[in-house]
Amino acid sequence: MLHKTIEPSKKDDIKEIVKQYFTEYLIQHEQRKTPERYAILDKIYSWKGHFDIDMLYDLMKDDYRVSRATLYNTLELLKDCNLIIKHQFGSESTQYEKSYNNIHHHLICTKCKSIKEFGDENIKKIIQSKPLGGFKVINYSLYAYGLCAKCAKASNSITPNKGK
Amino acid sequence: MLHKTIEPSKKDDIKEIVKQYFTEYLIQHEQRKTPERYAILDKIYSWKGHFDIDMLYDLMKDDYRVSRATLYNTLELLKDCNLIIKHQFGSESTQYEKSYNNIHHHLICTKCKSIKEFGDENIKKIIQSKPLGGFKVINYSLYAYGLCAKCAKASNSITPNKGK
DNA sequence: TTTGTTGCAAAACGTTTGCAGCCTC
DNA sequence: GAGGCTGCAAACGTTTTGCAACAAA
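ok -> structure tokens follow
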């Protein structure tokens, strides 16, 4: 269950690992191993942080040009094999992010819309220890909504627990 | 911090509580208290489970007709004051859900796309105990991706930890 | 009375689709 | 060689926008 955590010293291997994993997935699902798909996977795992379709399109352009349709198609594949995660923050366009060896969570300020990341190993333990009716968790993501330090200070905004 | 948990016996009060909370929010943000907004809030808190714009539009029609534009506008407001949560499961249309006294999480099968809910009080404890750099968490939601019991059994599908 | 909010319809935007040609298998 | 995959452009559906009328403050 759950993606492995790779030690920093082995970080260079990650691209190779995900590539192999993707290959196995494609074989199992009888899908073709096209150079476009590998180029996209490689680009995603070379990029730290969130990206959207346009950003990925621009990033790839120089290296290995693919159409938007192929990007959408491949991102769907990578999502289905749990190598990327899809986020919909606020009203921005859909964001994606590599997810192998990259589990972390997001704090989203409902006032200024800022997004901050945080990690927590304890959540992992909880998920791994819960039975969940036979569901095999491979990947997960938590979104916490509220007020960032700055907005919390700026406003004496009400919260559902006001006066408690 | 965090939405209160209301005992079952007090469940009838919830609509009243969220209405008051919404009123305070509108006053604080100098927005008008229109009947449309309250009618929408009431309808949402009368509904158990997920809904999308069209479903809400149809649900409201009989009771208090509002335009789609107003639904979008009001859902945005309710999201900003943490009374609803927005989900983007797979390729379905955007789903919403009341979030006051309704914190739970989602198991999403990447194979059959089924969605199952689960609750966990331990996650709440972790979030409440972490400092998070001054971020005030009001609401949160966890999405776990993987294989549901049925799909896990059906396939000897590879996972990132295959052979481990 | 002022100005934010609503409803309507049109516009905009991200994503999906159909099809011809290409390239894995 | 067959059929899946790609690129392109058109189509689609959801969300946003502009504007006039309305109503909360």
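Residues 96 and 120 of chain B are 20 Å apart (CA to CA).
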